[in-house]
Amino acid sequence: LLSGVGFESGGLAAAHAIHNGLTAIPDAHHYYHGEKVAFGTLTQLVLENAPVEEIETVAALCHSVGLPITLAQLDIKQDIPAKMRTVAEASCAEGETIHNMPGGATPDEVYAALLVADQYGQRFLQEWE
């Protein structure tokens, strides 16, 4: 009962909606919920205009425990613009948790944030090597 109550009032927002959007493309189907939410968290930080240092801190934590911080790490390597458009549209569907964010988010904003989050992840990986 408590986990159900906690889930219903857990303040879900963009990260989980992006997970749901990622299920609309086959590439990432074999990844766990938490792996997709991790990338969704980075994308949510971009949507929130979080400082780059904060995004890097979260990305470093994700990377240190083996969570994906790039689209390639979710096996999304081809037709990225079209696939991210699909993810963005699905993430913003009626009833999705992304609408819990102050001001919500449009598919265009989510699309751009997905690509920026991926670029940050790629840059961080290069810097850390």
Features:
single chain; 129 residues; mainly alpha; Dehydroquinate synthase-like, alpha domain; 6 helices; disordered N terminus; Glycerol dehydrogenase; ADH_Fe_CS; metal ion binding; oxidoreductase; metal-binding
Question: What fold name goes in the CATH topology slot?
Answer: Dehydroquinate synthase-like, alpha domain
Shape verdict? globular
CATH superfamily membership = Dehydroquinate synthase-like - alpha domain
- What value does the Rg take, in angstroms? 14 Å
Instruction: Write down the domain tally.
Output: 1
- Please state the structural category: mainly alpha
Percentage of residues in helical conformation: 55-70%
Strand content: under 5%
Number of H- or I-type helical stretches: 6
Element pattern in H and E: HHHHHH
Oligomer: single chain
Total number of beta strands: 0
List low-pLDDT spans.
1-6
Largest sheet: none
CATH hierarchy: architecture: Up-down Bundle
How confident overall, as mean pLDDT?
93
CATH level 1 class label: Mainly Alpha
Family: Belongs to the iron-containing alcohol dehydrogenase family.
Keywords: Metal-binding, NAD, Oxidoreductase
GO molecular function, one term: metal ion binding
GO cellular component, one term: cytosol
